[in-house]
Design goal:
One of its GO terms (molecular function) is hydantoin racemase activity. By secondary structure, this protein is of the alpha/beta class. It contains 9 helices and 8 strands. The chain folds into 2 domains: 107 residues, Rossmann fold (3-Layer(aba) Sandwich), CATH 3.40.50; 105 residues, Rossmann fold, CATH 3.40.50.12500. Helix 1 crosses helix 9 and helix 4 crosses helix 9.
Amino acid sequence: MRIKIINPNTTQSFTDALQKLADKVARPDTDILAVSPASGPASIESFYDEALSVPGVLEEIAKGDREENIDAYVLACFGDPGLYAARELTDKPVLGIAEAAFHMAVLSGACFSVVTTAPRVRFMTEHLVSRYGFGEQCKKIRTTPMRVLDLANSPDEAIAKVVAECVRAREEDHAEAIVLGCAGMSQYREYIEQEIGIPVIDGTVAAVKLCEAMVDMKLGTSKVLTFNWPRPEMAHPGRQLNIA
């Protein structure tokens, strides 16, 4: 099978890290294609950034169905930007890493805390937890004093802040698992888990493995109502989108 990981930002080092990580965890018969859109924000740290990233995400979904023989898609940003719109463009599975991580976290422990980036994204993360129905299991959303790009520019310092906040989540929230709230943290999941001693869930890995399971089970995106194809005058699965 072929799984396309779409990094909605344009920072190539993040995309390269996602490719390397997914190649490591995917099954031998799974082909991973990690891409960034041609245009969009360098990082996603606000609702405005999310909105800017969505056209590129939708173009990559359309291209995957049209040209690349993709079996499933992963949106590798913790805000899951454009997730529901993307599901309208394809009948293949489309998973956001936040939704996938939350589901995996409650299979690992009775409750979890989210450790994410700058305080500005707290409300965005609260919105996701509520939308996906995990309000009872999520103990707390913990932010760290850093920008997303710090994970690329000064990773040692950034991950030290993440680990410190994970320890506080374990000790103060009594969290039984940690969800990493940024795709830029993905490659450090194993190290963080070793440091704190409780399950740490990275949404990219969770989404890749769930995509493999869905393809094996022949489960796609239902087209019966909510995620039916866009109106023909707006887009069509067989026609190139021009979203600007």
